Amino acid sequence: xxxxxxxxxxxVETxxxxxxxxDMIVEVVPREGIAxxxxxxxxxxxxxxxxxxxxxxxxxxxxxxxxxxxITKLENQIVERQSSALPxxxxxxxxxxxxxxxxSKAGGRxxxxxxxxxxxxxxxxAFGANGRPVVLWANYFKVNVKSDLFFKYTMDxxxxxxxxxxxxxxxxxxxxxxGEAKEVKGRERFxxxxxxxxxxxxxxxxxxxxxxxxxxxxxLNKISLVENPIVVQVPKDEGGDEMDTxxxxxxxxxxxxxxxxxxxxxxxxxxPDGSEAAAFPRFPDAADALNxxxxxxxxxxxxxxxxxxxxxxxxxxxxxxxxxxxQNWRALTAARGYFQSTRIATGRMLLxxxxxxxxxxxxxxMVEILDNLQIxxxxxxxxxxxxxxxxxxxxxxxxxxxxxxxTADGKSVRRSKAIRGLATVSDVSRKGRGMTxxxxxxxxxxxxxxxxxxxxxxxxxxxxxxxxxxxxxxxxGVTLRDYPLLDLGSEQKPFTYFPAEMVEIQxxxxxxxxxxxxxxxxxLDFACRSxxxxxxxxxxxxxxxxxxxxxxxxxxxxxxxNRLLTVQGRVLNAPTVSYFSSDGRRKxxxxxxxxxxxxxxxxxxxxxxxxxxRWTWVNLSISRxxxxxxxxxxxxxxxxxxxxxxxxxxxxxxPPSQVLEVNDPMSPALEAVFQWLQKKDIQLFVIILSxxxxxxxxxxxxxxxxxxxxxxxxxxVARSFGKGSPAYFANVxxxxxxxxxxxxxxxxxxLSILKDGKTMVVGYDVTHPTNMAVQxxxxxxxxxxxVASIDKDLGQWPALAWEQTSKxxxxxxxxxxxxxxxxxxxxxxxxxxxPENIIIYRDGVSEGQFTQVLDQELPCIREAxxxxxxxxxxxxxxxxxxxxxxxxxxxxxxxxxxxxxxxxVNGTVVDRGVTQARxxxxxxxxxxxxxxxxxxxxxxxxxxxxxxSKYGAKAADELERLTHELCYLYGRATKAVSIxxxxxxxxxxxxxxxxxxxxxxxxxxxxxxTTATGAGRPGGxxxxxxxxxxxxxxxxx
Length: 1037
What we know:
InterPro entries: ArgoL1, ArgoL2, Argonaute_N, PAZ_dom, PAZ_dom_sf, Piwi, Piwi_ago-like, RNaseH-like_sf
CATH topology of the domain at 749-772 and 780-1000: Nucleotidyltransferase, domain 5
Distance between the termini: 15 Å
GO molecular function, one term: RNA binding
CATH class of the domain at 749-772 and 780-1000: Alpha Beta
Number of helices: 27
Strand order of the largest sheet: 37-36-34-38-39-43-42-41-25-1-40
Number of strands: 44
Strand content: 15-25%
Helix content: 25-40%
Protein name: Piwi domain-containing protein
Structural class: alpha+beta
Shape: globular
Domain Piwi: 684-998
Largest sheet: 11 strands, mixed
Region (Disordered): 90-125, 161-181, 1002-1023
CATH architecture of the domain at 749-772 and 780-1000: 2-Layer Sandwich
């Protein structure tokens, strides 16, 4: 797992003091005037925006527009209406309490079963009021929609058998074999739909339509179809003369009631019977229609903009911004583009726009690409050059290219083709069987150049073999260079070889790729930009790329305002954290965070874990010329951990050998070491890696330690560990204390909901296989990570992980058993009682899946509770969805509210302006973003039986406070984190479960394109579980 190695991912501030300034390099932001500058919608190109900041500041006179007062007034009215209903809701839920089975350890009074749950997606009880008010920019534009009705059609495209006739370009019309219609996809479908729309416009000059060039068509008026299907002809090859015939069938229409959506935005009511509350998101058809309308412009020219998915657009012409990712000789590039999506908000429709980045195939003339990568055709004997060729060839299949060549009559033509791959002898061995005259490769060559491959050339004299080099020299007078040959044939007709000199890779081809460690670093460096730069790009360049000022939008009655919105926010106070003093008196010591971070100078952990009597270490040499860490460093490490207050024997057990040299993660020598550890009753094994792992050692170590032998493992990197840095030692020490069952720090002031020790907090997440080429029916599983607290300090979070069907987000019935085990674990640590309140942070579900959580997962949770509680008692539940992969960003409007990196300050919460007052959600930026643009976490309440009944109108403040202060309880860092620990830990559990399944998720290949073919897999991984010794620990830290 690239990047998962070594426990050095999060540098903490420790006894050594603050991290050096050079560790926090950020782009310098002009603090005066940034606020007004990012609000301006300049027509200048992105490259010239920054030099024009002074002029823009003058143009806006330094004034930041206040949030729309009419929207604020409407939000207040809606929430006041909703707050008036709180007394009836709280009276139904007030006093709910639980007893464990038998009732003797209830704590609290008896209560009836819960009322019928018609309060799905509860209404916002109030806007939060705590914290210092601030005004922020948001990456949203207001969208004005005059029309009240659109029409939606669907389209079906088929390629048809065409009669033999002269085409418009003078060629013969093509036909499909057998006369049967064929499905049309991708670029071919784009050109067909574009031709069909042009034909409709010819028939009706007032025709107004938008499409995503797949299967949906949005129109302003009903279509009067002269013919249906619409028959069009499109060139068989891009740039060619021969034509193919297609039929575009139009179905519909369905009416899109935009007027109803506008009425809802103005009132935020659920309808007379409240039934509409169960539907979320609201008015998806209307929002989708607007997305299609707004996306139609940038999608219409595929030579100017590459549209990826439903909402990402990348300029590929003069405005392109790219960075090559060729560190490992792969034909990849990173590109900067823009995201856009409409959002329903209180009183208005908004367009969420953001900077986005993607991975594409590199584009340009093939010879220039190969020269830049220093790649040529070489024999098998040149190992390093062969490795480069393999890496380069990995992402060539299916790449679209332009090919320049001459036809039989000597005419120069340019055609669009798809690369099948590099010309390889292995491919000919597989596919060339049965051929009378298969291509011939020179002995000792796998990847052939023009001199090393001969093909059969038919002639009147009977034919002969000729090399590609000689053929081009004799026929065209061209001398080819020693570049690898490219196969532009098909699976049915392979071995159509072209020299690199004739090939040009077309731009805008996105690709799913698991990046290597080096490529990931380059990608992050490219994507990491200051909030100032991103906001200016959104205000200016994005409008050009997304064509937000295109006059054609007005035909639909749609316009996008040209200034980013301002919204109201609040900065919450940071909590004080507690440790023990380092003088040995075990006296509580308060530490006040500064900018979301603190250090451990003169303090010890608040609670040591179980005593680690027996531990050991080894230098794992996985690279040449590795320098092992000496024993005295390990001894200093043990002493340092003891000084931190961790319960550990200062002196480790000597290993059989201080250095273990292995070059294969599956080496029996590695497993033999674990067998020795087991015999010696070792509790903790410290593995000192000679370098950051990119070969699968980390995954193998964690699988052996966590699953096979039940021994805690800690991976460190020799370069960092060997320096003996107190910061590094402390960072690893925090993890070791958590593994051993300890608590590193807690909050000085206990949260009210947790103070009485009757509340359990749960977090769970599902991770899915991504960027993997898989065979249908043999897909890698999705993995569930599940954690739950065991006490009021929220310092320990034992975990579970399991597999479920690939790409399935909703949890199955396994959730019932998992939840019951967490209830039992909580009861074990709380005197046999079960929790009265259960707060659940569900990570990673999209808005379209909110109701599925309530319909599919909530019943499993209630079933688990039914098994553990007496029939007449039950726990109160609150379910909050936490989402970090969204596109909302906020920017400071004043230097007084700006962090050193130009971001909003940590603790900033936003719950109005870009939200729907009807629903209960908020954006929280708990952390201090040192680089790039801070991404807030988005929290939405799906169910609440706790906060409104306990706090009434203060419920919103209390939930925001709880979530914010939880972010200061992430045990392995001395900083507030970006998403609350229950969700964060669950995500880490999922990542560890991936490491336990290298058969599916192996990233050891330096070329990092995982292909799950099933070949050579051992029998199943579903039964792979964490060893019983570690099952109720934080083994995953």
